User: Fold these one by one.
Assistant:
Number 1:
Amino acid sequence: MNHHKTGKKFHARGSMAFGFHHLIKGTQKVVGAFARGVTGHNVPQTAEQQQHQNIEQQQPHTKEENAPQNAEQHVPQTAEQQQPQANEQHVPQDAEQQVPQTAEEHVEPEVLGGLREGFYQKTCPQAEEIIRNGLVRAMQNNSKIVAAIPRLFFHDCFVNGCDGSILLDTTPSGAEIEKSAGQNGITVKGYELIDEIKLELEKNCPGIVSCSDILAYLSRDAFVASGLPHYEVSGGRRDGMESLEANVADNIPVPDDSVDLMIELFNRKGLNAEDLVVLIGAHSIGVAHCFNFLYRMDDPEKAKMVDPRLGNVMRFTCTNQMSTLAFDAATQYKMDSVYYKQLLMNRGLLESDQVLAQDIRTRGLVQLFNNDEIGWFDKFGKAMNKLGAVEVLTGNQGQIRKQCRAVNA
Ligand code: HEM
């Protein structure tokens, strides 16, 4: 086994978070089958149509079309694909003060954690297209898949790095796998889509595209389908050969985590407080189950942090703990800065989201991204590449799995 990972041993989490998820895990075992049924319904037609339009309009460029070594050569194909440049160093003060960068200042390094843009250009040039088409097909039956995929990717990357270990159904030692952990369980979905895409890739380019890279490209496509401008994704991850439930609890943030703890968890992965606030904007799409936020209304101190109208919606909608509510009900299927506005109005569903709008270290960023959606979009793609480079296996490390649920025999 070739597992060159570092920084995997961390202190135990606060007992509150642990106890809470212990409880959740018990609940999942009882109601898991029901929950899958619940989360598949209620698909607004218009949102679906909008998503399909977005993903078809924003076809990712291949390396050949759009050599990103030199920013001057980068000519966006359509108006939609043009991404305004944000100021890398901007201090969270006022969106109006931002000075757009020139193309020269915006050149991105080719290598991040040993990964490369256009990684499959020679070995499997159709890889990104196959992945994107898989998402488009899946969206026809289930528009919620779009939000499920980035969460799957995040939970993969924060546990043992972005190595596809969350996808494994068994681990060689026979121990409990990541999927069994409370933070994953029924609320992490999308495994079947990964299987379908992997099958298609194996038909076209056997043994070439890793499961971990599928997750990285597919997450980008999911965000683009939700309105985020296209961003290039670096590839070259290889798949891990171990998946352990024991690694999950200390690495995945939970809804009652403090800002301190979230920043610490992100720091351990090489991400900073700004990356945290940028990436938490992923909650602009998707839903949360009531067991992840309804407890706030039972505690008078915590309930004070909830906008009374949202509190009423929580109580009304949460007929049981397995009901779901959209993070951003107004634009549930759209990546936009409305989510940050909601936080500033105490309408964040999760306590862990809401505290980011309160804390002195992060509030300015929440305000900034609320005022500057384009700047946030730009930072989002970059932060996703940082997330996607966490503790990756490259070169001869790990393996390219033949199927994503099992290590190669
Ligand atoms: C930093 C702390 C974070 C915490 C505490 C957190 C927690 C959660 C929780 C509790 C849910 C609801 C799960 C459910 O009830 O079904 C959720 C959903 C989601 N999370 Fe996060 N998350 C965090 C960061 C992130 C990041 C960094 C991303 C992606 C880059 C992400 C993407 C998502 C998405 C897209 C959903 C919606 C899933 C769906 O609708 O199926 N989250 N998150």
Number 2:
Amino acid sequence: MVNPKLLTISGSLRKGSYNRMLLREAVEAFGPAEVSEADLHLPLYDGDLEEAEGVPEKVQHLARQISEADAVVIAAPEYNKGITGVLKNALDWVSRVPGAAFRNKPVVVISASAGRTGGETAQFMTLSCLTQLQARLLPGTAVLIAGAGDAFDEAGRLKDATSRKFLAARMEALRAEVV
Ligand SMILES: Cc1cc2nc3c(=O)[nH]c(=O)nc-3n(C[C@H](O)[C@H](O)[C@H](O)COP(=O)(O)O)c2cc1C
């Protein structure tokens, strides 16, 4: 059988991002897949820009990546008890592309953050936006990696076995939706 297409979306642009590390764990837990990574270096949503020039090619590319993916995993960092501007901006842009890329798309949202709640508020806000975009949000125990600075080892691997177990369960459920 052909490997499913898995798209990863990090709400952090940082190279050393803990959410990127978490996504790498998620990809491994998902199993064999054709993996692609979203690039959220997008201009800020501006209705005047959209009217004058249309939706930027980078946004159209992202919408195509989402449409063509069998499944999407989003890592949502938390800034000031909310979704990062980077991720919200991307979701706002994608919502402007005709064709509703997220509609019925199986999606799992996970989070890592420095604080004690592991990005729970940001994750909740992300799920709320994705509901508006009609994504198929898979239920399951939330993956919330608190104290992210200490949660990964030097190789960038998630240390806590329980967290790895929860992540594996979410990714197995995501895989079961598409194969
Ligand atoms: C502007 C800003 C606001 C932040 N607010 C929160 C917060 O509300 N809750 C939290 O747990 N961590 C907060 N943090 C810390 C982030 O969790 C931490 O920087 C984390 O590493 C970001 O994710 P990343 O490693 O994927 O980039 C904040 C960081 C920044 C830069």
